[in-house]
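Following up on my earlier thread - several people asked me to post the actual chain instead of describing it. Fair enough. Here it is, all 75 residues.
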Amino acid sequence: MMNHLFKYSIEGRKPIELIYLNNSGDISYRLVIIRKINLHNVLVYDLQKQQVRTFNIDGILSVAKPTRQRGAINA
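Reply from S.P.:
Thanks for posting it. Predicted structure:
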C-alpha cells in the first residue's frame, strides 16, 4: 500500500500524508509530495516546511491520501 501511494504522489505530483517516527522517538505528521524513493530513504517536498526533506523509510509509520485540505476537513 505504501509503495502504491508513493507512486501516486510521484507520478501525479500530489500530496500524501505521512506519520513519521524520527531517530529521537518523536512522531510527526507531514504533508508531502514524494520526489524520489530508494532502498532506505524517500526524498520529499514538505508542504508545511516548504523545503525538501529526506526520511528513512523504516521511520514511516503511516501513509494516506490527505483527509485535510487547506485547513478544512473532508467529511
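The CA atoms of residues 21 and 27 lie 4 Å apart. That should answer part of your original question.
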